[in-house]
Amino acid sequence: MPSNELPEQSKDNAEHLDAEKTIKRNPHPDFKKVEGSRPDFPSHPAPSTFTFTKVPSPSWTYGSGGNDDGASLSHNHISIDPYAEGRQPVQNYKLLISGIVPRPIGFLSTRSKDGSSTNLAPFSYTQVISHDPPIFIVGFASSLEKAKDTLKNLVESKECVINIISEHFLEAANATSIDAPYGVSEWAVSGLTPTDCETVKATRVKEAVFSVEGHLMDTKEFKSPATGRVTATMAIIQGTRFWVREDAIDETKSLIDPGVLRPMSRLGGITYGRTVEGVEIPRPVWENVKKEQGEKTEALARPKVDGQ
């Protein structure tokens, strides 16, 4: 069923079935015409590569601030009250998904408690928050009472698989968010391949380079300050098994090659982001910086004060 990023409504609510028309994520009246005018998607290099560049300003020094010579300081900001009179929740939704970017996509596969049905859906309100133990959170824009398939399955079965979406099955993953009639399988609609797991009964996506089996630890509901109604639920999930494609993992089983993973992220509207390039910056060590910059570092060592 469709991703729960949106203000959710129960399946018997007709407005939910028209959610895309209500939200209007797609800004193009004729999307295929717009897409046809764009360059082709870059063909995958063989083997897949990930490019590193220099940082924007290799000569940057401590205390220098931004690397744009102060250009960003010449612009003013506007203040937005999320609950200002007349402001609709959909405006906050569009603002947040276009400003908090890129967002990792948790492609969740779940199974009903009795095993009679399955579900597969993408959620960009997903994040890892701890490695020991491996803890993940997933946000659903609904109450537990009005939970759609993924949240309902997760709460009842206490398990799921978090798959990471890569370029080579983007279209199929996006297809699972279709507003298909109740009971229609997202696995069939997408053509993706389910395969067995070890610690959960839900199946993982075999096409995924990286997947995490997980058990539900807890859920927490949140109320809207405007209405007092429960409008969001956070699920806390503990990872119990990792799956990594053999050509993507290093010998220590610690690092995944981004050139093989080629993860997709969510931006605003209907836009996805690619991750094919990066920069490396070592984490600074105070004593080393003091040796490199001498007195300048000492001059920067001022007490922490408000408004500094």
Topology:
Elements (H helix, E strand, L loop, with lengths): L13 H4 L1 H5 L7 H6 L14 E3 L35 H11 L3 E2 L1 E6 L6 E6 L2 E6 L2 E7 L8 H9 L1 E6 L5 H6 L10 H5 L3 E2 L8 E2 L4 E14 L6 E15 L13 H4 L2 E3 L5 E3 L2 E3 L6 H8 L1 H6 L8
Parallel strand pairs: 1-14
Antiparallel strand pairs: 2-12, 3-4, 3-7, 5-6, 6-11, 7-10, 8-9, 10-11, 12-13
List keywords for this structure.
308 residues; 14 strands; 7-stranded antiparallel beta sheet; 3-stranded antiparallel beta sheet; alpha+beta; 10 helices; globular; single chain
* Ends apart, CA distance between termini: 49 Å
Strand order of the largest sheet: 4-3-7-10-11-6-5
Average pLDDT: 90
The run of helices and strands is: HHHEHEEEEEHEHHEEEEHEEEHH
* Helix content percent band: 10-25%
Task: Please identify the structural class as seen in this structure.
Answer: alpha+beta
- Per DSSP, what share of the residues sits in E-state strands of 2 or more residues? 25-35%
Low-confidence stretches: 1-18
Shape: globular
Number of strands: 14
Major beta sheet summary: 7 strands, antiparallel
Q: Report the C-alpha radius of gyration, rounded.
A: 22 Å
Count of helices?
10
Structure notes:
The chain starts with 13 loop residues before the first helix and ends in an 8-residue tail after the last helix. It has ten helices and 14 strands. The chain is globular, with a radius of gyration of 22 Å. It is 21% helix and 25% strand. With 308 residues, the protein is an alpha+beta fold. A hairpin with an 8-residue loop joins strand 8 and strand 9. The longest helix has 11 residues. The strands form four sheets. The protein has a seven-stranded antiparallel sheet with strand order 4-3-7-10-11-6-5, covered by helices on one side. Strands 2-12-13 form a three-stranded antiparallel sheet, with no helix packed on it.
